[in-house]
Write a structure and sequence with these properties.
Blueprint lengths: L7 H17 L1 H20 L16 H8 L1 H4 L4 E8 L7 H15 L18 E6 L2 E6 L9 H13 L13 E7 L11 H19 L4 H13 L10 H15 L4 E7 H34 L2 H24 L10 H28 L3 H29 L6 H31 L5 H22 L5 H20 L21 H12 L6 E7 L8 H15 L4 E5 L1 H11 L14 H8 L15 E8 L4 H18 L6 E6 H36 L2 H25 L8 H27 L4 H28 L7 H32 L24
Antiparallel strand pairs: 1-4, 1-5, 2-3, 6-8, 6-9, 7-8
Helix pairs in contact: 2-11, 2-14, 3-22, 5-9, 7-8, 9-10, 10-11, 10-12, 10-25, 11-12, 11-14, 12-13, 12-14, 12-15, 12-24, 12-25, 13-14, 13-22, 13-24, 16-23, 16-26, 19-20, 21-22, 22-23, 22-24, 23-24, 23-26, 24-25, 24-26, 25-26
Subcellular location: Cell membrane
InterPro entries: MMPL_dom, Mycobact_MmpL, SSD
Pfam families: MMPL
Length: 846
């Protein structure tokens, strides 16, 4: 093995600093590393799942600024719907109505529910008004003297028909009733003790100052974000698992053979995701066992295989421990990171152990000599590859979505753990480890080498001109094909239902049932119309809203539109003896004041001063195309069709508005992040090899795999979203590992005077075998994700399997073919000692 760097003096200078720490003070360093591992192990044991709605959205996006500004007036986007379906007939049966009442009461007291925004036909805010001979009459849909009697059921049936709630709180066929909840973003039960109030004071003061000292909503958001995420004691975030469990208790309590309970909403998604994420622990253990078995077969020594497995576990412990130490939890979307860290650690561990065993079996080195020689050969390229990963993963931190930033920090911590464990702990452990049967190990190694040599000799033909032209041409054609498919990759969701869960999951079945029975559902876009104080008694303002409402009702993907306008028209008709021709907006301000006064602000349609109105647009789905079309329609109306420019239409609130903000943030950052990742990788490659050939031979296969990744996403209908955006960046990191280890050996062979074909053959006998093994092993490990109950984990698994496998092929097949055209540059450095003193290590008698 040899270090692929032009400046051996620089390499030796680094090793002169590092070697005494690792090999000169082995006992002290080993003790210190074990103490740190124990400390971080304790922290990792305290790690808990931590999912939050605000973490998944771009809080600085203009749509989110609108959302936060009007959160108190118009509510948020964190809605839960509980639908009870009666299989014995309609809802007007005493037994069913009692079940609905009790379920509504239980839902009202779920921790974290905004009780001012709980709606069902039992809510006192749900009433009807009708025109009678003496004027107007009305009452609550469920009368105050309610009793579960047949006579009362008939009365309720009539009230429901008059209350305009069919399609909203009662299904069209009147067999299903809905309970609508809205959740707070913080736990209302936290921060109530004196101690917590004291802890919260400094942060509350910063929040108050940010809110009062200016109109910069970004500063307000930052203060809110800090309060919600950085100090759990001051104000704990809502426990979505607890909410989900409370919802499941309602389902278990009231679902019978005659009644089905459907539950949809973000809190239920998080609960289902968290429970399904427990599968990942099983997948992790199975992957670890598979990796250990494959390592045993590959290395030929069970103890050595267990050393590699153990160090990968230590690296994961460091990652999770560091994450908890800085106050983070483990988000379900970040569960791929421990898999990634295990895979990278195994990859580097296999390279190191293989080289160490080779020194033992072929050069009769002592364990110490073999470890020192291997360290001098692999430390620099290994650390360079890992540092490239750290910096590359850190670039996704530029995406201003908290869950992605947490994944970035998580991955960076993991790579730091791999550096410390694989480049310090592993060399020390191997310096003490003695193979029990060196001669037997040597014979087994020679046998495996002989079996592989025939294949490797044939593969070395890839460095010749004819095969090199064919492989390079295929590579470029595949890259062009991948680039041509980029425009087909959707930004956002591509399927009905919740894409995080499988289509046949209980949640998505519930979502389809609710969508089939109600015109209003979880998916809705809120557009805020800003005007001026008492704007709702200005006819021109209300007429503009009426035109906009009609325009949006006629857009594809819109199920229904609801706003103050519709209620005002109904009220005007009611005040005009129920005449159908009076179901319009009156022009007189006094008449507008009279009818809008009948609509309370608790409906979420208007503010206290009526300077802003909310338009609820209920959509057929939340596919990316639907969201983009609707937001574009709003912008088109505001720019080209709006007549009264005193009205400012602002996007957006509701869960569709939040999704639109997220999709736009992903679209805005997707290509820049890829360019940043590649910029960092290419810079590190140049600093490592100081040759254009090194950059091209590693960079071209890597770029080809990334472009083909877009083709895979387009073919399988995988959208580019929060869950998948970091995956290709992570796969690039694995490709860099493969490329650096592979090219370093080829370059070193060329500089020693070997032909390219012979240098490639030697590379396959050393790092090439390890690359083949780790690529296959990591692909098998991540392949288990395809069986996850979570759709986004399945998508991640598919993309990672593709990334690991394709990058392995790139390093084994494409890299040597490219080297045929570019590697002549390495001959300029012929004769230089690039082993950083690895050969001298054999003379060390320790």
């Amino acid at each position: 093995m040899s270090v692929a760097t032009t400046s051996t003096g620089f390499t030796r200078a680094i090793l002169r600093v590092v070697e005494p720490v690792i090999f000169g003070k082995r006992v002290l360093t080993l003790t210190l590393l074990m103490l740190i591992t124990a400390f971080l192990g304790w922290h990792s044991a305290q790690l808990r799942p931590n999912a939050g709605w605000l973490k998944m959205v771009p809080q600085a996006h203009p749509y989110m600024q609108t959302f936060m500004q009007y959160y108190q007036d118009f509510g948020g986007a964190n809605t839960v719907l509980i639908a009870l379906k009666n299989h014995k007939g309609d809802i007007y049966q005493p037994e069913f109505m009692e079940t609905l009442r009790k379920a509504a009461d239980d839902a009202f007291f779920i921790p974290g529910v905004d009780r001012a925004r709980v709606n069902s036909i039992f809510s006192p805010s749900i009433l009807y008004i009708e025109v009678v001979e003496g004027g107007l009459a009305g009452e609550n849909v469920i009368p105050s003297d309610y009793a579960a009697t047949p006579e009362m059921m008939a009365r309720i049936r009539g009230n429901v028909a008059k209350a305009n709630v069919i399609g909203r709180l009662v299904s069209e066929d009147q067999t299903t009733a809905l309970i609508q909840l809205e959740l707070l973003e913080t736990d209302p039960n936290s921060g109530t003790t004196k101690d917590r109030e004291e802890l919260a004071k400094p942060m509350l003061q910063r929040l108050r100052e940010a809110w009062q000292n200016g109109s910069d909503v970004g500063a307000k958001l930052k203060a809110v974000s800090t309060l919600l995420t950085k100090n759990e004691d001051a104000k704990a975030g809502l426990d979505y698992v607890q909410v989900g469990e409370a919802l499941e208790k309602i389902r278990a309590k009231y679902e019978t053979g005659d009644i089905t309970v459907h539950i949809v909403g973000f809190a239920k998604v998080v609960d289902d995701m968290t429970k399904a994420s427990m599968q990942v622990g099983v997948f992790f253990v199975v992957a670890l066992l598979l990796m250990g078995l494959l390592l045993w077969i590959y290395i030929g020594s069970f103890p050595l295989a267990m050393i590699v497995v153990s160090t990968s576990l230590v690296a994961c412990t460091w990652e999770l421990g560091l994450l908890h130490a800085i106050g983070y939890g483990l988000d379900p979307f970040a569960l791929l990171v421990p898999f990634l860290i295990m895979s990278v650690s195994v990859s580097h561990g296999v390279q190191y152990v293989s080289a160490w065993a080779n020194e033992i079996s072929t050069r009769d080195a002592t364990p110490y000599q073999a470890s020192l020689a291997t360290f001098r050969s692999l430390a620099i390229p290994g650390v360079v590859a890992l540092l490239a990963n750290v910096v590359g993963f850190s670039t996704i931190y530029l995406i201003n979505i908290q869950v992605i930033r947490e994944m970035s920090v998580n991955a960076a911590f993991g790579m730091a753990g791999v550096i410390m464990v694989n480049k310090m702990l592993l060399p020390i452990v191997l310096s003490y480890f003695r193979l029990p049967n060196v001669e037997g190990f040597r014979r087994a190694t020679e046998l495996r080498d002989r079996l592989g040599d025939a294949v490797f000799r044939r593969m070395a033909l890839l460095t010749r001109r004819g095969p090199a032209i064919v492989v390079t041409t295929i590579c470029l054609l595949l890259a062009a094909f991948g680039a041509s498919q980029y425009h087909r990759v959707q930004i956002g969701d591509t399927t009905d239902g919740v894409p995080e869960l499988r289509p046949d999951s209980r949640f998505n079945q519930d979502a389809r049932a609710v969508a089939a029975n109600f015109s209003m559902g979880v998916d809705h876009l809120k557009v805020i119309a800003e005007s001026f104080d008492d704007g709702c008694i200005d006819y021109d303002v209300m007429a503009e809203m009426d035109r906009f409402s009609w325009y949006m009702k006629n857009q594809d993907g819109v199920r229904d539109v609801l706003s103050l306008i519709e209620l005002a028209k109904l009220a005007n008709s009611g005040l005009s003896e129920g005449r159908l021709d009076a179901e319009v907006l009156p022009r007189a301000p006094e008449s507008l004041a009279q009818i809008t006064a009948l609509v309370p602000t608790t409906t979420g349609f208007l503010t206290d001063t009526c300077d802003a109105l909310a338009l609820f647009i209920f959509t057929t789905d939340h596919k990316a195309d639907t969201i983009t079309a609707l937001t574009d329609a709003v912008k088109h109306y505001a720019d080209d069709l709006q007549q009264d420019k005193r009205v400012k239409l602002r996007l957006a609130s509701g869960n569709i508005g939040v999704m639109a903000a997220t999709n736009e943030e992903v679209r805005r950052n997707e290509l820049p992040v890829v360019f940043y990742v590649y910029g960092v990788i290419l810079l590190f490659l140049w600093l490592s090899f100081r040759t254009v050939s090194g950059v091209l031979c590693i960079g071209i296969p890597l770029a080809t795999v990334t472009l083909l990744g877009y083709a895979v996403m387009a073919a399988l209908g995988i959208g580019q979203k929060v869950a998948t955006l970091p995956v290709l960046a992570f796969a690039c990191g694995i490709g860099v590992d493969y490329g650096i280890y592979s090219y370093s050996v080829v370059a070193a062979g060329l500089r020693k005077g070997l032909t390219l074909e012979e240098a490639y053959f030697q590379k396959m006998r050393s790092t090439g075998k390890a690359t083949l093994f780790t690529g296959a092993g990591m692909a098998v490990g991540v392949l288990l994700w395809i069986f996850s109950d979570l759709q986004f984990q399945k998508d991640m698994g598919i993309l990672l399997v593709f990334g690991f496998t394709a990058n392995m092929i790139g390093a084994i097949v494409v890299l040597p073919s490219l080297a045929h055209f570019f590697s002549k540059e390495e001959l300029k450095h012929a004769g230089k000692d690039l082993t950083a003193g690895a050969d001298d290590a054999i003379d060390d008698k320790r």
